[in-house]
Write a structure and sequence with these properties.
Layout (H helix, E strand, L loop, with lengths): L4 H5 L3 H13 L4 H24 L3 H19 L6 H19 L1 H24 L1 H7 L2 H10 L7 H25 L6 H23 L3 H8 L3 H23 L6 H8 L2
Length: 259
């Protein structure tokens, strides 16, 4: 039996939109929890009907996603306050999601630390290599920054640490956001920043500034560079969603993957 797409969708669209809103923000009171349960059951019935009627794949995927999100909202444990929810996400949700996206994380690490190693070896062994990656002025400024005993006092250390944190957070945002360009932006920024930072490390080590550099960055660089790779994994995931849409439109696939 063939049913026209609009004949199937039109009378149900308002109900689906209402369920989508409830699933996104969560019910505010008992009446809305009851409404969520009713709309969820009705949408499951719509999904079963769409499959039996052979409706287009995008409709079936949309209803499957909507029913899944409503199910998760309906049967998940309700957190007692935003602080507890954020803590739960940090301790449980984030590691679980990172493991689920381990392929993208491994690729991001390879794209960052592979060029980092190339830059480190090149900067360590050849000033000419370093000069091709960074300008002479930048190299000279790096040497001056890490010369001496780094006795700058608390204010100097705090300012310098703030600069590095700000800079690396900015890199992480660029690595993530440009993933929307089919993942190409994420790959570019991972490779570019990997080879640049590797060259800086290698060059300063060869110039006798390695101890001062490592003394300063040891306390924060592991967190920040891992964060860049996590952001890269997220950007690559977004880019992949534009290529492997699973029957959705590209925008619909991106919206599903981005969170």
């Amino acid at each position: 039996m063939s049913v026209d797409r609009e004949v199937f969708v039109a009378p149900r669209r308002a109900r689906w939109d209402r369920l989508d809103a409830l699933a996104r923000r969560g019910p505010d009171d008992a009446a809305e929890w009851t409404e969520l349960a009713e709309q969820y059951r009705a949408t499951c019935a719509d999904l079963a009907m769409a499959r039996s009627l052979g409706m287009p794949a995008d409709i079936q995927h949309y209803l499957d996603d909507l029913a899944g999100r409503a199910h998760n909202k309906l049967y998940s444990v309700r957190e007692a306050g935003i602080g507890r929810s954020v803590l739960h996400d940090a301790i449980h949700g984030f590691p679980r999601e990172l493991r689920a996206q381990i392929v993208f994380f491994a690729l991001a690490c390879a794209l960052f630390y592979g060029p980092f190693l190339v830059g480190f070896v090149g900067g360590l062994g050849s000033p000419e290599f370093a000069a091709r990656v960074l300008s002479e002025a930048q190299l000279e400024a790096m040497e001056q920054a890490y010369s001496g005993d780094l006795v700058r006092g608390f204010g100097g250390d705090a300012n310098m640490a703030g600069f590095y944190v700000f800079n690396n957070v900015g890199i992480a945002f660029r690595v993530f956001a440009t993933g929307a360009l089919l993942g190409v932006g994420s790959m570019f920024y991972l490779v570019y920043n990997g080879v640049t930072l590797g060259t800086v490390f290698g060059y300063l080590l060869a110039a006798g500034r390695g101890y001062n550099l490592l003394t300063f960055v040891a306390g924060h660089s592991a967190w920040e560079l891992t964060g860049v790779c996590v952001a890269g994994a997220a950007g690559l995931k977004m880019g992949w969603s534009l290529l492997a849409t699973g029957g959705r439109t590209r925008i619909g696939s991106l919206r599903a993957a981005a969170p």
